[in-house]
Amino acid sequence: MWVSPEDVLLAGALWITERANPYFILQKRKGHGDGGGGLAGLLVGTLDVVLDSSARMAPYRILYQTPDSLVYWIIAHGTSRKEITEHWEWLEHNLLQTLSIFENENDITTFVKGKVQGIIAEYNKNHDVKEDDDTDKFKEASAKFRKLFGMPEEEKLVNYYSCSYWKGKVPRQGWLYLSINHLCFYSYLLGKEVKLVVRWADITQLEKSATLLLPDMIKVSTRTNEHIFSVFLNINETFKLAEQLANIAMRQLLDNKGFEQDRSLPKLKKKLPKKVSALKRDLDARAKSERYRALFRLPKDEKLDGHTDCTLWTPFNKMHILGQMFVSTNYICFTSKEETLCSLIIPLREVTIVEKADSSNVLPSPLSISTKNRMTFLFANLKDRDFLVQRISDFLQQTTSKIYVERELNGSLNSSDDEVYSQHGSLLSSSPQHSLGSEGERTFNLNDSSVPTATQALMTMYRRRSPEEFNPKLAKEFLKEQAWKNHFAEYGQGVCMYRTEKTKELVLKGIPESMRGELWLLFSGTINEMATHPGYYEDLVEKSMGKYNLATEEIERDLHRSLPEHPAFQNEMGIAALRRVLTAYAFRNPNIGYCQAMNIVTSVLLLYAKEEEAFWLLVALCERMLPDYYNTRVVGALVDQGVFEELAREYVPQLYDCMQDLGVISTISLSWFLTLFLSVMPFESAVVVVDCFFYDGIKVIFQLALSVLHANIHHLLGCKDDGEAMTVLGRYLDSVTNKDSTLPPIPHLHSLLTDNGEPHPEVDIFKLVRSSYEKFGFIRADVIEQMRFKQRLRVIQTIEDTTKRNVVRTIVTETAFSIDELEELYVLFKAEHLTSCYWGGSSNPTERHDPSLPYLEQYRIDMEQFKGLFNLLFPWANGAHSDPLATRFFSLLDHNGDTLINFREFINGLGVLCHGDLTEKLKLLYKMHVIPGECALIVNHTIFVHFTVKKLNTPDYRHYLKLWNQETRHKLENTKDLPKLNQTQFIELCKTLYSMFSEDIAEQELYHATATVTSLLLEMGEVGKLFSSPGRKDHNMVGKSEPSMCLADGTDPKATQEAGLADVFQQKDQSHAFVPADMENQPSPEGKGEEGNEQVPPMQDIKLEEDSPKDVVTSSAMLISDDETKDDTSMSSYSVLSAGSHELDEKLQCEDIADDTVLVGLPHSTSVDKDWAITFEQFLASVLTEQALVHYFEKPVDVAARITNAKNVHKVGRPLLSTSDYEISLSG
To answer: One MF term from GO for this chain (predicted)?
Structure first.
């Protein structure tokens, strides 16, 4: 490629000059290609790899130099000799003569530089090359990565790092390349080349560890190998990036969401020399945004714009707190350096004024932000205040316009929506006047008028109080409410409140019943999603009402199992509200739909929040706070189960081994985590856990679970089996009570099912929660995320392995492949699917992979993917001619016509070719041509038939015919059911047969056999045409007609037969190998071969009279005994041959024809004969007459060798050669 001219001081160092003229020099890098320059070349190659100069140095380059100058300019470089030679020849033809005109060397230099830059600009314009942020150095590294590992342009390199790869006990210094879909390593040391390619989707473990020998190393494990990398300059950065990319791959396996680059990143101000790609910046930005969203519970599409150090004035303690300000599209957030001191969330929709205050020594660079509820926040010590204010102003403008558009839209849809909007605003703003039970709440009916609709939290409608417990408990509840109101007065109320350690203390003491719903909305961040989506829930309910699918069926089944002991769900109002919320969510997120346990959680949400609020709380739970918990395979819960096991091993080690032996941890954790303890604790206690969960996230559940184990450690150590352990834990959890609850005691189902043993002493829920914070409160959310990543790899790969085993178990009885072979084939099948997801395909990946489908249907491949596997695995694949055959094969296997085939269909097709008998294979080949092919029949106007006929011994095919006759009697009806092959389809079949043999050892013999079979079938078709011609008045007379009618007929089939063969074959080339007739440039007189679809009139059976001519060459059927002929009536359809066929057969069989004799056909008609047809029995019998063809189709297939070859082929289809000095490890 042409490059912007750069000066080079030492043109000869490490380079060999190959061509030169007065102005230009073409050079090759030492150590590249054949004859790499001996020891010096080896050293240069090694230095290039170790010092990363190979990323900058292409192996060929062109330098420009004027005769009197010592400075050289590089103007082009190339990765191949062909590329650089094209540039060199262009220079010689276009520039060399022009340069001789100039007198001044400076003018020549200016001209050459301008010309090269003009060429680059023109190329960029013509090829629509967009400017990106990648540095030149990174682009060169990316080009080298694609060249080294054979990756296509679609495979984007993210970053590359210098490191050592431990191959055995020897470290190989080289470069680790991390791309979107692959981890690759390359090393070249003193002539020894090492390459490694691992798909992220194949990685089962990725961990950073340290040993005495290797202080910092990254271990990458797949199902079959372990790879160790060490000696990193920045191991933390490398490992974080590897984690991110592996996570993206796991996400793709889980729900088929591939990686899409974020094009909205801000441009770099200048080209930095640092080797950072736009993709790396994108991934870094994603990671930061993810941490930001998790920290402040923001909607999942919120993107962090930037952050800066600052101080915040906190009026409640009159201090300037040091911390960080975060600015994103819709929010300004703050968190103190001391994590628990203070945090703040200010939605831009609440902001009214942003202004720069006057600086002073006490308060440098202050910034004041005022909100709608008359709160003012004062930030100071901002480094780049002007820029920050500008960014906030821009985002405010976008927010204002967004609100305006929503109002306009809602106003146009419904005139009463303006009022609705203002009421929403009062609910969701941080106005201190608002409370949950305020009057004038919006009322809507989401169902038909006969069913009452919940317009407030169900608990407020079904609250019952016991008179004897009324005073003391209610007094305590009143004190709690008063404490929260005082807190709001001091720290603010609503979304903009200051969140401090005091807020956490109040949560741990218990949230009052009347405030629970409001505070759940606030702490979970749901209030933000609800505010930005007015009317969304109502629309969703309206759309989902009356629609049925699998999710709605499951919802209906579980409705009456959701807190049935609570009076709110013992009538239609509560049940209807629950139905609407669950159904609306199932329609919002079809990937999850509905999962058991969602009903229990949602019913509790409905007790404390209004219907729409409960819906958004469910959204927050399923999509943010408990990710992947409620999908079809509860992956998130399984991941957290693994995290819990790891935490138990670390913090209750004395109990861990015992629990593992009993298998209890996996049993308890699923029920505890999926329902947030709601299904295992008394209701009034479990809601306290939910309070803490919405405030502090998943760490609360882990802390509490560890506390429960720790409290029962002695009892559990004495348990002999899992049942006893479960009873111990069940009794303990049943005894957890909430003495402050004002609710009447609700019988707990779990306790009703336990035995009548001595009850466990009561455990106070508030003491248990506080104890969990004291003992395990140091577990950080970011540590849990790190552990989740490790477990996610394990869980998803285990699920993939389970899927593979289930698929193999399902179809192992249907095929002759062994279990090991099926597993290997499944891996290849899945890999082909994944590759197309990476680099595009003709169909949408989400259509081909749906984890909710049955195992067999989860991965499906389309036509293009099938072609790749066909070439690697199928015995009939044959280079350039494979595609048309693969297309026909795919159409045959695609039973439902959705242009996708699943693994069973794929194996059925491959099984016939690898393990099927001769009849099955020929039937498959025949059926592939009966269905309409994509290729239209194209006939030449004047064609010649060319055959080299060799004298062959007539094979003894009687044995095969007898075998076939015996084996297929029970299949006779099925065989007869096959439609006939018309002339168009027959010629396509001949082409297929012809192309299949082009690389076979017995090629010449097979071509002769094909020619003989084709001639025979053409004659049979002609005979059949005579007796089933549409021109006859009475088809029933055919069976009674005399044989002399056949012979006396004026039709001479000879020309037609020869012409039909001419369509298939042409003269042999110099190597005596036949090549298919090249007809692509000829127009089709029949359009698109539509005649191939027409039904041919059925052939009538023809009796062979005793006075038939004895000298006619008999067909294969006539060589069977009379009894066999009587038994097998299918033979009668081709029992007579015309005199014309006898004449041609004599030409082909005659012994005195020389080996190099050529038969030449005459010009023939271009029309397709509609009456001509053959049956499958005729095709089979004709093939059986040729020993060479029989041997070809009965030849055993080495399946293991084909699978091994397919595994060794590079993921993009290029074989990797393995030689003594070139080692490849391909994992997965």
So the answer is: GTPase activator activity
Burial class (CB in 10 A: 0-12, 13-18, 19+), 735: middle
Q: What's the order of all strands across the beta sheet hosting 217-222?
A: 203-209, 217-222, 226-230, 157-167, 170-179, 182-189, 192-199, 1222-1227
- Predicted confidence (pLDDT) per residue in 1081-1095, tens digit: 334 434 334 434 444
List of domains in the chain? 2-35+44-126 (no CATH), 136-255 (2.30.29.30), 293-407 (2.30.29.30), 458-625 (1.10.8.270), 635-782 (1.10.472.80), 814-945+974-1022+1177-1212 (1.10.238.10)
pLDDT digits (tens, 9 = 90+) for 699-712: 999 999 999 999 99
Give the list of residues 6+ apart from residue 95 with CB closer than 8 angstroms, or none. 23, 112, 115
Query: For residue 731, what are the CA distances in angstroms to 739, 744, 1053?
Result: 18, 21, 93
Mean pLDDT of the chain: 74
How far, CA to CA in Å, does 1202 sit from each of 272, 870, 901, 1091, 1101? 49, 11, 21, 38, 45
**CA separation, residue 223 to residues 194, 796, 813, 957 (Å):** 21, 13, 26, 50
User: pTM of the entire structure?
Assistant: 0.73
**What is the C-alpha separation between 713 and 700, in angstroms, rounded?**
20
Of 860, 757, 877, 761, the C-alpha closest to 1202 is 877
Q: What sign results for the dihedral spanned by CA atoms 544, 545, 547, 549?
A: positive
Rounded distance, CA 1080 to CA 1061, Å?
A: 17
Separation CA 388–CA 327 (nearest Å): 9
Given a contact cutoff of 8 angstroms between Cβ atoms, the answer to whether 1078 and 880 are in contact is no
Residue 203 has pLDDT above 90, yes or no: yes
Amino acid at 955: P
Hey, which residues does 164 pair with through a beta bridge? 173, 230
First to last CA, the chain: 35
Residue 446: band (very low, low, confident or very high) from pLDDT cuts 50, 70, 90: very low
- The position carrying tokens 């999962």 is 595
Inter-residue contact 310 to 369 (CB < 8 Å): no
pLDDT digits (tens, 9 = 90+) for 994-1011: 888 776 777 788 888 888
Query: Running DSSP on this structure, what letter comes out for residue 938?
Result: -
DSSP-derived secondary structure letter, 331: E
C-alpha distance from residue 3 to each of 16, 77, 118, 949 (Å): 20, 7, 11, 60
Distance CA(1173)–CA(651), nearest Å, equals: 80
Of 135-149, 448-462, 582-596, the one with minimum mean pLDDT is: 448-462
Q: What is the amino acid identity at position 1025?
A: K
3-state DSSP assignment of residue 175: strand
CB 330 within 8 A of CB 323: no
Residues 1152-1209: pLDDT tens digits? Answer: 333 333 333 333 444 567 778 888 888 888 889 888 888 888 888 888 888 888 877 7
